[in-house]
Design a protein that fits this description.
- It is a single chain.
- The chain has 159 residues and is mainly α.
- It has one domain.
- It has 5 helices and 2 strands, in the order ααααββα.
- Strand 1 and strand 2 form a beta hairpin.
Length: 159
């Protein structure tokens, strides 16, 4: 059996997704300030909530008052975006290189079987058939990304 055949291909991509998710979560933790981002998100959310309430109630004075703070809110949103983009810029080229090798390496091969779905999954409504390589990596990446984000305190756990 080779690395291109199930179960080795499945485990290889699972391990790759875990490694990349761990590295990006660590980079996020080290290069961003999750506490500051959380405070900014809360402030933006509160402002948006107040603005919606005032607009719904038709209270033009409160809307005007809140709109004076709009530029500040936009700056916060920009800072939050930059925080997230820093890590993306660091990992973009290495990921493109990895995928330029993985695509041809696994071309035309089944990576994993999805219970009840098989190896090729059709995208609903669009009818595109998405490669098992992409599906398996995305599922694994979402799993590990969420797990490591919780471990490193990058996202909050809802009460």
């Amino acid at each position: 059996m080779s690395m291109q055949e199930i179960p080795f291909s499945t485990l290889l991509l699972f391990g790759l997704a875990a490694s990349i998710s761990l590295l990006t979560s660590l980079a996020n933790r080290l290069l961003t300030n999750p506490e500051k981002s959380k405070a900014w998100r809360k402030e933006i959310s509160e402002w948006n909530s107040q603005l919606r309430k005032a607009q719904k109630a038709g209270d033009k004075k409160i809307v005007e008052k809140l709109m004076k703070k709009q530029q500040y809110i936009l700056q916060l949103q920009s800072k939050m975006s930059w925080q997230q983009l820093k890590v993306t810029f660091i990992f973009l080229v290495p990921l493109l290189i990895i995928w330029s090798f993985l695509g041809p390496f696994f071309a035309g091969r089944n990576i994993a079987y999805f219970p009840g779905l098989g190896a090729n999954i059709q995208l609903p409504l669009v009818g595109w058939i998405i490669s098992p390589l992409i599906w398996w990596y995305l599922l694994s990446s979402f799993f590990f990304g969420t797990m490591f984000s919780h471990v490193f305190g990058l996202i909050e756990v809802s009460d």
